[in-house]
Amino acid sequence: MKYALIVRYGEIFLKGKNRHVFLNQFRTNLGKAIKPFEGVKVHAYHGRYLIDGISDLEATKSAVLKVFGISSISEAMVIGQSIEEAGARALEMIAALPQLPTSFRVRANRSDKTFRPNSPEIGRLVGSIIHLATKIPVNLTTPDLLVEVEIGNEVCFVTISRDAGPGGLPVGVSGHVELLLSGGIDSPVAAWLLLKRGVRLSAVTFYSPPYVEETARDKVIELCRILRPWGGPERLHVVAFGSAQKILRDCRPSKLAVLLYRRLMVKVAELFARADGAKVLATGESIGQVASQTLANMAVVEQAATLPIFRPLITYDKSEAIALAERIGTFKTSIIPCQDSCTLFLPPRPETRGKIEEILAAESHLDLDAMARELFESAETITF
Ligand code: ATP
Ligand code: MG
Description:
Bound molecules: adenosine-5'-triphosphate, magnesium ion
Low-confidence stretches: none
CATH architecture of the largest domain: 3-Layer(aba) Sandwich
Distance between the termini: 36 Å
Order of helices and strands: EHEEHEHEHEEEEHEHEHHEHEHHHHE
């Protein structure tokens, strides 16, 4: 039996003059998703995409379902130009359902206009084959199951189900963001939310050898690998932060240390953003989650940046971020215990209401920009 996938995209984004940009990127991304599967091909097909040549349906489908921009997807059986075959395949697909539907309707589409009979008649004929064999009642207005039959020139198929796609926009249509990616739960989720809106991502991570184990670095690399099928990040800059942190730890008053770490991180990320062509920075912060994420402290950290900072999780509860991390597949890796740069060299009472004048006074003995440049120049970059 030959299987295919029918891929639909959200029409709503396609009204403007960017339609072709969206569609080109979408098709490229579908092509990347099916690349590991030999013989599988993607074709534009009457306002949808058809993926055929499939041998492993489950694996192909789960890879395709990670392409943002898909509104829904259907498993289809490829048939000849035959009403009898449409009916027979529909019956096979219905028999494979975990339970029989309480009612059904057939919707036919005849993109080959030379085929006879016409679409409503195809629908009636296939419907009567199904009804005679199963006795399932027909319901034209609110059917429990919708059987779709497509009679085209190049391809004909039957489908009986639609799965929701991940939605969003194709990765690559919305510009480039530089994400501060830790090994924690939140920033990989922030990555996913940005990818969902069509953003390309590069990531920067800070870890502090020899004060933390290599696990910290490996964890972030693994998180990037998990995120890769969703479209990113394309590269990861790994910054060895330990010696810079040691200098900042000794600042006075010591309660400002974490804010200085953060301001330095933002400055380094900004250098990478400029090198990578990213116009915006992003973090996984959420209001009030930890001491450094009060409004006052976020404002103080943001003052060190000249680019805007996006915080997709800003209003998320931890439980909401965890639920998404589980769905994306990053949660298990994120919770592997290991020390993070930001929890290293913590002052006994970190500032929760940072004031910019105090920070600038503490920084006046330091050259944060020179430190940032040195960290930028000595970083390791991994491409995926
Ligand atoms: P996460 O789960 O993303 O680590 P968190 O709740 O642990 O977040 P923090 O550790 O305070 O909160 O980090 C807030 C944000 O700062 C992170 O989401 C990330 O964007 C950035 N960040 C923190 N530590 C690092 C790091 N070592 N490398 C890169 N970015 C970091
Ligand atoms: Mg963290």
